[in-house]
Write a structure and sequence with these properties.
Elements lengths: L1 H38 L9 H9 L1 H18 L14 H15 L11 H28 L11 H12 L4 H69 L1
């Protein structure tokens, strides 16, 4: 009984370590992919794909990925504490993604083995609208508090749409979320399907490696049992003689 408890605790601890590692790595990869998209003038954010991947490992992995992405980005962009802390509001958009992945794609018992493509499509659409609303409201708050300029946003396509809407006398509070929806529909679809695809590939690779290791361990244990049994039998026979 004690051996089983020790093994269970070891596996549980190892899973937490895997999630932490996945989250930290995902945070760096998010920023790398986002930077590449900016340099190539891709009209997408591309900053949450690996948050989805980390979220597939568990709540802890997703939250750590979200925290790492925003804190590393905050520091690398030259923001200062505490003056520019309001710029971290977008962190809640990433938390929305984590919650969506865990609740929609990994609810039990429906999706015990693998995510349903229809659920993934549904999640992509829902995230696009929710994050557009959240991000748009945060952007308006930052503009009103003079944290950012009204004509500057991290995505040129969104910025152009906001400008178009505002010139047509649409209030910024409506223009900002509305302008983000088309970009987020594409961006979050790529993030959900791509992020889950990476997770599935990693899971398959890790599972195969784990199965091989377990098989080798079982073979080794069986061999030791046979050899040990043989020695015991020989010793018993010697005693009888």
């Amino acid at each position: 009984m004690r051996t089983n408890m020790t093994k269970f605790d070891s596996l549980k601890t190892r899973n937490i370590f895997v999630q932490c590692a996945a989250g930290i790595v995902a945070g760096f990869l998010n920023l790398l992919l986002s930077s590449i998209a900016i340099r190539l003038h891709v009209p997408l954010f591309m900053d949450t794909l690996f948050t989805v991947t980390a979220s597939c490992f568990g709540w802890a992995g997703g939250i750590i990925a979200a925290v790492a992405s925003h804190i590393i980005g905050f520091l690398s962009d030259g923001y200062s504490v505490p003056k520019d802390i309001p710029n971290l509001l977008y962190f809640f958009c990433s938390l929305t993604i984590v919650a969506g992945v865990r609740i929609v794609l990994f609810r039990k018992p429906q999706n015990a083995d693998r995510a349903n493509p229809l659920d993934m499509l549904f999640l992509s659409i829902v995230l696009a609208f929710i994050i557009s609303l959240e991000g748009g409201l945060f952007y308006v708050m930052l503009v009103q508090s003079n944290r950012v300029s009204a004509n500057i946003i991290g995505n040129r396509a969104v910025s152009s749409l906001i400008y178009t809407f505002v010139t047509k006398n649409i209030p910024m509070l409506i223009a900002s979320p509305l302008a983000s929806i088309p970009v987020n529909l594409v961006d979050k679809t790529i993030a959900v399907f791509g992020g889950y695809g990476i997770f599935a590939l990693l899971k398959k690779t890790l599972f195969q490696q784990k199965s091989q290791n377990e098989s080798q361990t079982e073979n080794s244990a069986s061999h030791d049992l046979i050899v040990g049994g043989g020695k015991t039998e020989s010793a018993d026979e010697f005693d009888e003689i």
